[in-house]
Amino acid sequence: MSASQLRLSSHILKEHYGEIVEKVGLNILRKGWTTIASIKQDTGLAISKIKKSICILIQHNLVKFQKNARGQVTYSAQISNILTIHQYPKLTYCAKVTFGDAAELIIEELLHHGSMTMSSIVANVTNRLLDPALSQSEQIDYEHVANQFVELVKGHLIKRSLGDEIMVISKGTEEAKLDVVRANDMEYDLPLGYITSASGKRKAVSNNDGPAAKKRKSSNEQVSIDFKDADMLWKVNILQFYHHLVNELIENAVRNRLDEFAAEIVKVMLKLTILTRDGFSPQTKPVSVYEIDERLSDSSEIDSDEIAQYLNLLQDDEVGFVSKVGENSGGLYVVNIKKSMEAICVQTIESVVRERCGSKSMRIFKLLLLKQHLEQKQVEDLIMVPAKEAKELLYNLLSEKFINLQEVPRATDYAPSRTFYLFSVNISQVCRMLLDRSYKTLSNLICRRHHETEEQRRLVEKSEKINAAILALKSQGMDNDSPAVQEMEEMMTDQEKQQLTKLKTVLSKLERSELQVGDTVLTFTQFLALNS
Amino acid sequence: MAVADIVIKQESIEAVDLESKILALCKDNGKGISDAIIQQSMPSIPAQQRVMAINRLLSTGRLELLKSGSTLLYRYKDSESVSKVKGFELEEKLVYQIIEEAGNKGIWIRDIRYKSNLQLTQVNKILKTLESKKLIKAIKSVAASKKKVYMLFNLEPDQSVTGGSWYSDQDFESEFVDVLNQQCFKFLQQKAAEAKKVCSDPLAHKNASYGSSHDILKFITDLGISKVQLSIKDIETILDTLIFDGKLEMTIVNDTSAGSSREYKQKKLYRAVKPILSSTGLVRVPCGLCPVVDKCEEGSAISPSTCIYMKEWLEY
């Protein structure tokens, strides 16, 4: 946990849950394990407020608790989960792309509430989809939403919130182990209420052939559903989402390096193996050429010979995206997730080096990466840059902490004339440094966003008031041309309007950049996780 | 090469002798002599060498040119400096020999002093006179810009002294290297693009986009951007820099085309590769490039709310 991580966490907590939760959360983060009494002492907040804050944090899986030896309940914050909040837009987008609009809303709903029952999720999402403000082209009913929910569960993108940690602590060890095993089995079980109701519904629909009438009726009133699952809470399986995001990164890398077909093949391989991927395994399970062919045959005109050729290319590539593990069933291949991520991470670092220090420095960096240990003279000779300039670039890289300097003395006196000075690159070290800088950049961007809104607060409030007034007038039956509406609109001067649009572009630029830096963070964290 | 060296050595020794002979001849005839007389007195010397010797004597100011009627006369020019040189004759020859031994690698002034056991001032003087006689020349070494090395006037300096194709006048020609770097990459890129048009098969496409260092050398030579003749090794160093730039990929294959009876020769093949991602999100915001990012703190002199880089970027 670094200072910049803490700062970012505090920004995130403040933005999403308000100041009080931020104070409590930050205090828990700083303390490691702490009790309510100690939080009260540090923050000076009322016990009730602290309790509520902790409830919120626990609901969102940001804080966990346990009983210590003296019987006190202690709390500890999960910084990785707090930092993940920043990636939430990416998760919802991923769900939208892979499963559709309803899935997007389900994930959004779940992320917003931390954990929920299936009944309430399906009900909420159906209501949101039926919102008259949204013009829907397709017919929506709760069955469709429930189906998407089941799809997400099948894809392991959401899982039951079983609270197994609590069991482990509260019960004896042997018993706890049993519980955990059971918990793993149950993680993706659907509520019984849903299973019976689904089969019942299907029958009902086939018997009475008027589903349209039912749908029309439901659009007028709020849908409420009960699967009798009040004790079954669901939460988003962040890890599985990360698998999806990593897959996307690898697909993009293959697309850039080779072409669309190669990316398509890798996509199929990754998709087929995503459910069996455990934790941070360096490779996927093997996939045969036949399987790939079967999956691809309906979408593109590529034949199995070409698939084999592409797999060969992928294997021979410098990165080594895939490797062959067997000859059976047309050839068995695995995707090298770790190798691919490493290549992506290295390229990310290289792009930072190139932008910060110039392309010649990037050449030095890459040279050191390839040759590992080199002396200054060797570097100067190999990169084909005048010696003086090369020296400058090299030491600039050293001062920016992208490369390391190792002294190898020939004698015990460490005399400079009898010492080798070797330069080298340590990727994971640079990676951690840049990750920290990315966190810092994120908090800077958030900070700047607050600053910009704060400066124009008066203007924003004024425009909001006016807009509300105009809406109110319109609801009274006036249209855009009526004098009252126009008078309200004229209350904003042209200059103010300009300022407002400028503020909007500035904010959207900042937000967009936050997402882009988020991509960098994702690359680095996933690489480090795979490497640990 | 060895034969050529010997010839050169003989020539230069003869040149010194020839000059002294001509000088002696001129001294005998105070009024000056014509070219025909010199030719008569030493018939064995070819005309070209004679002209060279006379030119050198003229340029060093020991002879002067007179015109009488339609013929040109050479007359001995008696000046103080020239007469002084005569006293050094022996040391001069010694230094000359030491420099000659060093060949085209050249020799440093300190080494001349050690070998000849002469005073620094004396060595300096001799070097100066030898230089003014155009018998030796001083070359600045690329290894150390202040270090001068001496070698015979008519020798081409060694690569280690001049730095090879990449140096002109002790300066590294980075522009030349950059142009070559770009051209090599362009060549391979074009090759890859052409291969894509011709081959539908992905494997054939990959194989067709490879170019050997020989092909690239030929392309560069045909372009005519290089004044000097580049070797395969030169081109390979350039291609190496492209690999370090992450733009090329290299494989080594056994070359069977060059004579089947000979042992296999290794051939380096290069191919342009596409980067696997464009610039990352971090460097698209000012903080990724900010030189003072480590000192940036909310509330301090450098802070995100007052950052000028951020302001410029947001207004852009």
What is the oligomeric state here? heterodimer
What is the H/E string of chain B?
A: HEHHEEHEHHEEHEEHHEHHEEHH
Question: What does the radius of gyration of chain A come to?
Answer: 28 Å
Greatest contact pair?
Answer: A-B, 64 and 44 residues
Number of strands of chain A: 11
Reported for the largest beta sheet of chain B, the result is: 3 strands, antiparallel
Order of neighbouring strands in the sheet with most strands of chain B: 1-3-2
Largest sheet of chain A: 3 strands, antiparallel
* Tally of separate helices of chain B: 13
Structural class of chain B: alpha+beta
Mean pLDDT of chain A: 78
Fraction of helical residues of chain A = 55-70%
- Shape call of chain B: elongated
Strand content range of chain A: 5-15%
Span between termini of chain B: 65 Å
CATH class of the largest domain in chain B: Mainly Alpha
User: Which strand order do you get reading across the main beta sheet of chain A?
Assistant: 3-5-4
Q: In percent, how helical is the residue content of chain B?
A: 40-55%
CATH architecture group name of the largest domain in chain B: Orthogonal Bundle
Model description:
The complex is a heterodimer of chains A (532) and B (316). In chain A, 67% of the residues lie in helices and 8% in strands. Chain A has helices spanning 3-17, 19-31, 36-43, 47-59, 79-84, 88-99, 101-113, 118-129, 142-154, 164-170, 173-186, 192-207, 211-220, 238-257, 260-273, 289-297, 304-316, 337-357, 359-371, 376-382, 387-399, 427-455, 457-475, 483-490, 494-531; strands at 63-67, 73-77, 116-117, 158-160, 233-236, 287-288, 322-326, 332-335, 374-375, 404-409, 419-424. Chain A has five domains: 3-79, Winged helix-like DNA-binding domain superfamily/Winged helix DNA-binding domain (Arc Repressor Mutant, subunit A); 86-160, Winged helix-like DNA-binding domain superfamily/Winged helix DNA-binding domain (Arc Repressor Mutant, subunit A); 239-335, Orthogonal Bundle (Arc Repressor Mutant, subunit A), CATH 1.10.10.10; 344-425, Arc Repressor Mutant, subunit A; 430-530, no CATH class. Chain A is mainly α. Mean pLDDT of chain A is 78; it is low at 164-183 and 200-221. In chain A, helix 1 (3-17) runs parallel beside helix 22, helix 14 packs across helix 18 and helix 22 runs antiparallel to helix 25 (494-531). Chain A contains 25 helices and eleven strands. Chain B is of the alpha+beta class. In chain B, 52% of the residues lie in helices and 15% in strands. Chain B has 13 helices and eleven strands. Chain B has helices at residues 2-28, 35-41, 47-59, 80-102, 109-116, 120-132, 159-162, 174-198, 202-208, 213-223, 232-244, 286-289, 308-315, and strands at 33-34, 63-68, 71-76, 107-108, 136-140, 148-152, 167-168, 171-172, 211-212, 248-255, 265-272. Chain B has a three-stranded antiparallel sheet. A three-stranded antiparallel sheet of chain B has the order 4-6-5. The N and C termini of chain B lie far apart (65 Å). At the A-B interface, helix 14, helix 17, helix 18, helix 19 and helix 22 of A face strand 8, helix 8, helix 9, helix 11 and helix 12 of B. Chain B: DNA-dependent RNA polymerase catalyzes the transcription of DNA into RNA using the four ribonucleoside triphosphates as substrates. Specific peripheric component of RNA polymerase III which synthesizes small RNAs, such as 5S rRNA and tRNAs. Chain B: It is found in: Nucleus. Chain B: Belongs to the eukaryotic RPC34/RPC39 RNA polymerase subunit family. Chain B: Its main location: nucleus.
